[in-house]
Write a structure and sequence with these properties.
Layout: E1 6-11, H1 17-30, H2 36-43, H3 47-53, H4 86-95, E2 104-109, H5 113-134, H6 142-148
Parallel strand pairs: 1-2
Length: 154
């Protein structure tokens, strides 16, 4: 029973500090979940054992937390796959299975089309920001802007 690291794919995020914290929290909540296959590999158990450990109930889609079971993330439909947070898998391995060394590793996945579009948008926003910072002092209200122009209003 040797512990195995849990491998999770999380898209790489390299943005400004404000956007990075928001995006990282959203990504970590939505895409850092692991499926049954990953749990099976990391715990070195059979698929049947993983299902036996899992806190599921045919009458209740999202049962309450059970510290003696492997608790899946919230599901909106019975047909949704069981997904687990890596910390939950680590907790279960340590507390219930008594595995002494538990390692949770988060690996970056290759860039997706969505990540590339978001990166391009971020580059454009940085360019706009740098051009706005390079402009002379901006007027504080519309009246002063209108006074600066030498042409009548339409």
């Amino acid at each position: 029973m040797f512990p195995r690291p849990i491998e999770v794919s999380v898209p790489a995020v390299s943005e400004s500090s404000d956007f990075r914290s928001d995006a990282a929290s959203v990504l970590s909540q939505s895409e850092a979940l692991v499926g049954i296959d990953d749990v099976q590999k990391s715990l070195n158990r059979s698929r049947a054992s993983v299902y036996r450990y899992t806190n599921t109930d045919p009458r209740n889609l999202n049962p309450v937390f059970n510290p003696r079971k492997l608790n899946p993330e919230y599901r909106s439909d019975q047909k949704d796959p069981l997904l687990f947070h890596p910390n939950e898998v680590a907790r279960f391995a340590k507390d219930v299975l008594r595995i002494k060394e538990v390692t949770v590793e988060v690996l970056n996945s290759p860039s997706t089309a969505t990540q590339q579009v978001l990166g391009a948008i971020l580059d454009e926003l940085r360019l706009i920001r740098s051009r706005l910072d390079g402009l002379p002092e901006a007027p504080s209200d519309l009246a002063s802007r209108r006074d600066r122009q030498d042409r009548p209003a339409a």
